[in-house]
Every structure is written in structure tokens, then in C-alpha cells.
Design brief:
The chain is mostly beta strands. It has helices spanning about 1-20, 200-209, and strands at about 35-50, 60-80, 80-100, 100-120, 125-135, 140-155, 155, 160-175, 180-195. β5 and β6 form a beta hairpin. It is elongated and about 55 Å long.
Length: about 210
């Protein structure tokens, strides 16, 4: 019993010393003011939706599969708080049931707008993104697009500047022509890779203050 207690004591002592000495790879997630964020992520979702636009027989219910590729660039105004621009390419596959089976429609569109992020020291961050866009159909009609996304992610730093970031988001999208509109909302699951240029870890910040 005494030997077991001694072993546990040495184990935890060694772990504490190792955590203090190996700052070269045990990077904390706090990001210094003046750092630059560059990267992107992919996410996807499947959901039920109701369409009103261009439906002469009335609203139509179907299933949509959505895949997004987002490119981000941001700047840290203060420690842990970044603002920037998010450009996203979205591909949507919409299926509706008909008497003969299923009818599928596909489209790809581009959205862009500002985003903001805030990081906690443990690597968890919150992100808010607002985007807008425009769809032009062959008939000449124009459809306005607006999208808002609120998410929570985790920055897993593989070294001082590169992080792999799983993220879960809730997305709201509205597209409209005049008084008719299509609205969809629901969760997205994704993962991204970000580069933190000029980044300094939290212990370096604290030592400099």
C-alpha cells in the first residue's frame, strides 16, 4: 500500500513537471492580439424543407442534402477575439417524392460575409457568421439569399500555428423573391484546418505582461 502511494506520488509529480517543461508542444489555445487566421472548413447536413418559390401548385415538401466548403480569413483585434470574412461554396441536392418515384434537383451557389470568433483557454470557441448572396436563374429571375450560422468548436493545435477544428453549428437560411420565400434551418457538423500566423501561446503572453 505504501509502495502504491509512492508510485502514484512520483507519477503525478513527474506529470506536473513534464507539463511545465514541455511548453514547446503543449500549446494552449489562447491567441494573441495581432495574430492572423487563415484556413477553412467543410460541413454537411440533411434536413426536411418546404419550398414556395416557383411552385405554381403550392408549397412543396422535400428532403435536402447540403454540403458547404468555407474559406476564412481573420484578424485578432484583442486576445482571443477575431473578426474576418467567410466565403462559402454550397452544393445542395433537393429530392421530392412524385408518383413515378423521386425527382432530384441540384444547384451550387456562393455566399460571403463577416464572421467573428471568441476562444477560451481550453481551446473551445464560439463562432457567428452572417452571409449573403444572389442566385440568377436562366429565366432572368433573381433570388436573394441570406444565411446566419452560430456554432461551437474546438481548436486542437497540432503545433504552435496549425489547428484541426471540429465544429457543430446551427444554420438559418432564407431565399426570397418578392413575397415568396424558402426557409431552412438545422444543425451542421463539420471539421476545419486553420493556420494562426504570428500566433503566440498564452504562457508567452503572460510572461511578457
Amino acid at each position: 500500500m505504501v509502495i502504491l502511494k509512492l508510485l502514484l506520488f512520483f507519477f503525478f509529480t513527474y506529470s506536473a513537471v513534464l507539463a511545465q517543461e514541455n511548453k514547446s508542444f503543449m500549446w494552449k489555445a489562447k491567441v494573441k492580439h495581432g495574430s492572423v487566421l487563415i484556413g477553412g472548413n467543410v460541413d454537411a447536413a440533411i434536413y426536411k424543407t418546404t419550398k414556395e418559390l416557383n411552385q405554381p401548385l403550392g408549397p412543396e415538401e422535400g428532403t435536402s442534402i447540403l454540403a458547404n466548403m468555407n474559406f476564412k480569413g481573420g484578424y485578432f483585434l484583442i486576445h482571443d477575439l477575431a473578426i474576418g470574412v467567410d466565403l462559402g461554396i454550397s452544393h445542395e441536392s433537393y429530392s421530392v417524392s412524385i408518383e413515378e418515384g423521386k425527382d432530384t434537383f441540384r444547384r451550387t451557389y456562393l455566399l460571403g460575409g463577416p464572421f467573428t470568433r471568441y476562444y477560451l483557454d481550453n481551446g473551445i470557441f464560439g463562432e457567428l457568421t452572417l452571409k449573403g448572396g444572389l442566385l440568377n436563374f436562366s429565366t432572368g429571375d433573381k433570388t436573394d439569399l441570406a444565411q446566419g450560422t452560430l456554432g461551437v468548436g474546438y481548436a486542437l493545435f497540432v503545433n504552435e500555428k496549425i489547428a484541426i477544428e471540429p465544429i457543430i453549428s446551427f444554420r438559418y437560411t432564407r431565399e426570397w423573391q418578392g413575397d415568396d420565400a424558402n426557409v431552412s434551418f438545422g444543425p451542421l457538423i463539420g471539421v476545419g484546418i486553420q493556420a494562426y500566423l504570428l500566433r503566440r501561446t498564452s504562457h508567452i503572453i503572460k510572461e511578457a505582461l
